[in-house]
Design goal:
This protein is of the alpha/beta class. The chain contains ten helices and eleven strands. A hairpin with a 5-residue loop joins strand 2 and strand 3. Helix 1 packs across helix 8. The protein is globular and about 55 Å long. S-adenosylmethionine (SAM) binds next to helix 4.
Length: 284
């Protein structure tokens, strides 16, 4: 059972105290813990749509795709590139912002647990993603919430990870301890290029993100993780399509062409960027 400690009320940021199957703040705002152990800290007032984030279908597609290990080289690259200062901590406090159904966080916790005590929290705005995640890993805290207002106290984590997600840097900085680390995992120019060539009549030039830097952070280390993999059945091709933004962006014809395939050889091109939080008066 997860601990659900050190969380804050999303309405007034007061600490949440556990009372049986609920978390309650001093102003009496109460949040019930779900049967599977997660907590929903996304009040209706802060929702911009009725069912925000990835849909039930996208979550299922990602779960079934990732479970087959196609993207495990990304996890291996994350684990081997963990900075030495994090490796030296006996307890590692890790937050996955936009964790989806939790595949990455589960694998990272499993791989680092022999050498560290892990305090791991996964947050996603999709209740479908968090429901799924919470059914499969009980030692991790799972929260329905938004990166825009992370419902935890400042300085709570040593490491924030945001993989293929929607980073909100001031929030990540707030919840990180001084000198804490932010890992951004993002697509490179050639990521799934063979699929994109089928989906789109023309490939738009790749836009490199955060070239001007990220305020409050210093880029310390970058890893290019590039590998080839093949899908040899229509189901996995459909799952990959359904778990990416291409499912919304590509034309009907493009999607039909991809869904007609039974085999495709693909390139994964992923950038890992490790940033370190700077103190307010820091000079490099
Ligand atoms: C492309 S998926 C990546 C999921 C996971 N990190 C992975 O790599 O498998 C993006 C995730 O961000 C979530 N998301 C979208 N907006 C969000 C927000 N404002 N706060 C937290 N999560 C958000 C979606 O629900 C979705 O699960």
């Amino acid at each position: 059972m997860s601990a659900l400690e050190q969380l804050c009320c999303p309405l007034d940021q007061l600490p949440l105290i556990r009372q049986e199957r609920s978390l309650v703040c001093a102003n009496g705002h109460a949040y019930d813990i779900a049967k599977t152990g997660y907590i929903n800290l996304l009040p209706v007032q802060k929702k911009h749509s009725k069912d925000p984030g990835d849909s039930k279908e996208m979550v299922a597609a990602r779960r079934d795709f990732l479970a087959q290990g196609y993207y495990d080289p990304i996890i291996a690259a994350i684990v081997t590139s963990v900075p030495e200062t994090l490796k030296r901590l006996s307890e590692l406090r890790l937050f996955d912002a936009g964790c989806g159904e939790g595949h990455y966080l589960r694998q990272i916790v499993a791989q680092l647990t022999p050498s560290h005590s892990m305090d791991a929290v996964g947050l996603d705005i999709s209740k479908w993603a968090i429901t799924d995640a919470s059914k499969r890993a009980k030692t991790i805290d799972w929260i329905v919430g938004s990166n825009a207002h992370v419902p935890v106290a400042e300085g709570r984590f040593d490491w924030v990870m945001c993989a293929f997600g929607f980073p909100v840097f001031p929030e990540f900085s707030r919840i990180l301890a001084d000198q804490g680390w932010l890992l951004l995992v993002e697509s490179g120019a050639d990521h799934l290029i063979e699929l994109r060539q089928i989906l789109y009549p023309e490939i738009k030039p790749h836009r490199v993100t955060y070239t001007e830097g990220v305020e409050g952070f210093v880029l310390r280390h970058e890893v290019d993780q590039r590998f080839a993999f093949s899908l040899d059945n229509g189901e996995d091709i459909a799952r990959l399509l359904a778990m990416t933004p291409h499912i919304h962006k590509a034309s009907y014809q493009g999607k039909q062409a991809a869904l007609a395939l039974q085999k495709i050889d693909l390139t994964a091109d992923v950038k890992l960027r490790w940033y370190q939080k700077q103190g307010k008066n820091h000079v490099e």
